[in-house]
């Protein structure tokens, strides 16, 4: 694997211009002082309760997501390109979701094979023909960006169902301002604290037609969900109610919330529950998390769900290779941000290539998430590669493969001192009457030396992301 792009250093000892001020400061900091600051951050995060629940073998436990005190810095020019490309991409994705549930022009034009959409596990036939407010489906999108090669940005993944992580973006910034206020006096760093206000404005803008003062709620599966902290945090920051399915009910084709003062009509639900569990009358009958009859109110246009039911078909990894084609088809523009080159294992010739090069590739389940169900060829044993080969042969259509990118590295404070670690970036794009975003995002970092897996469930941590203003 080639050497990775270093965010801070153009070459050994040569600090990039936008890191120069920070680099001068960092060079003067004793290691003991940095270690104390990291310990202070861990204690404060634990006190506030910023943890995530663990599934699998350690189910029921909670962990602190490691926080790194060295920020990732992006200069204004780079951010401008990223922002323009993200807005373009999310616009096209929203148009695609509307299209497949209505006219299906992209299928009729032969751009995407029909079976890739209509046989997709995330496609919801119940959404066919339903009109949603402002034709917006992915109101909140978390798009994973990586940097490779000579510093080019690539989109690794589109998260359009219930994207998480924005609370860590906000809390990381608060922590850095608390630990190192002098750095914020020396740098012009774009703010991110107004994200909850932007989110609430965005949600209110897509209320059902005729509603002038909409009531918004955040709907959570409950305290045992891995992202429960974020659900509670965003509700509190927006000043709206955090509800569970049992707090809501349907009457006269409208959704109401139970309150001590009687029923209160709900107009917009920012739901953090998967499609399958939203309405036991329409999807999984055994779901106790949802609201019976919710889909019928949604079909009637009397409540807005953010994100919309059925958005998952657009962020499935089997659809990902077609996003550049969507941009050309719907917007008549060339994509500003490139995809990572992707082999679709459902195609015999691309499966053959993948099988022949497994030690060099990353192979992912098309429905997978969180770093699970994937093979990182260069980091795998011969036995692991052979086991994955059998999975591919058994169900080739369930996988895609990509070259192993040398993700960019950023200086990170680890046990051995300051050392480079691989990172990615998840900016959050809001779609309503307009498409907007704060200048920043969640930088995730692979804390294990050489690791390319940044997911918190796989031992990754997070950093504050600084976008410098001009």
TrEMBL record:
Classification via Pfam families: CP_ATPgrasp_2
Superkingdom, natural source: Bacteria
Circularly permuted ATP-grasp type domain mapped to chain residues: 71-446
PANTHER family found in the cross-reference section: BLR5612 PROTEIN, SLL1039 PROTEIN
Protein's name according to its UniProt entry: Uncharacterized conserved protein, circularly permuted ATPgrasp superfamily
Source organism (scientific name): Noviherbaspirillum humi
């Amino acid at each position: 694997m080639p050497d990775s792009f270093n965010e801070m250093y153009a070459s050994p000892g040569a600090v990039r211009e936008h890191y120069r001020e920070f680099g001068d400061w960092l060079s003067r900091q004793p290691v003991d002082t940095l270690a104390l600051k990291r310990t202070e951050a861990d204690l404060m995060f634990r006190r506030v309760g910023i943890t995530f629940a663990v599934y699998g073998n350690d189910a029921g436990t909670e962990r602190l997501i490691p926080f790194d005190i060295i920020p990732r810095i992006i200069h204004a020019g780079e951010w401008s390109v990223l922002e323009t490309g993200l807005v373009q991409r999310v616009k096209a994705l929203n148009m695609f979701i509307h299209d497949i549930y209505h006219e299906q022009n992209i299928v009729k034009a032969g751009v995407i094979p029909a079976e890739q959409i209509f046989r997709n596990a995330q496609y919801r036939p119940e959404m066919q023909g339903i009109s949603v407010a402002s034709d917006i489906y992915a109101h909140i999108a978390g798009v994973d960006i990586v940097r490779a090669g000579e510093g080019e940005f690539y989109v690794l993944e589109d998260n359009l169902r219930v994207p998480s992580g924005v609370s860590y973006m906000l809390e990381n910034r608060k922590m850095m301002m608390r630990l190192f206020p002098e750095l914020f006096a020396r740098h012009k760093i774009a703010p991110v604290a107004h994200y909850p206000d932007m989110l609430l404005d965005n949600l209110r803008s897509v209320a059902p037609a005729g509603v002038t003062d909409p009531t918004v709620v955040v709907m959570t599966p409950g305290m045992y969900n891995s992202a429960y902290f974020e659900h509670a945090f965003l509700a509190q920051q927006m000043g709206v109610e955090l509800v569970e399915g049992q707090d809501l009910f349907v009457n006269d084709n409208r959704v109401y919330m139970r309150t001590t003062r009687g029923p209160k009509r709900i107009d917009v639900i920012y739901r953090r529950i998967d499609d399958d569990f939203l309405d036991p009358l329409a999807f999984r009958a055994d779901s106790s998390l949802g609201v019976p009859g919710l889909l019928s109110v949604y079909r009637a246009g009397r409540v807005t769900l953010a994100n919309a039911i059925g958005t998952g078909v657009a962020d499935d990894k089997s659809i990902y290779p077609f996003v550049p084609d969507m941009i050309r088809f719907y917007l008549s523009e060339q994509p500003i941000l490139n995809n990572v080159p992707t082999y679709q294992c459902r195609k015999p010739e691309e499966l053959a290539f993948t099988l022949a090069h497994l030690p060099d590739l990353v192979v992912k389940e098309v429905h997978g998430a969180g770093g699970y169900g994937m093979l990182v060829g260069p980091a795998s044993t011969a036995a692991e590669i052979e086991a994955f080969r059998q999975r591919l042969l058994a169900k080739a259509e369930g996988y895609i493969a990509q070259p192993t990118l040398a993700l960019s590295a950023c200086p990170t404070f680890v046990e051995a001192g300051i050392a480079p670690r691989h990172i990615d970036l998840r900016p959050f794009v809001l779609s309503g009457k307009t498409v907007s975003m704060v200048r920043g995002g969640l930088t995730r970092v692979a804390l294990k030396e050489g690791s390319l897996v940044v997911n918190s469930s796989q031992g990754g941590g997070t950093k504050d992301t600084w976008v410098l203003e001009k």
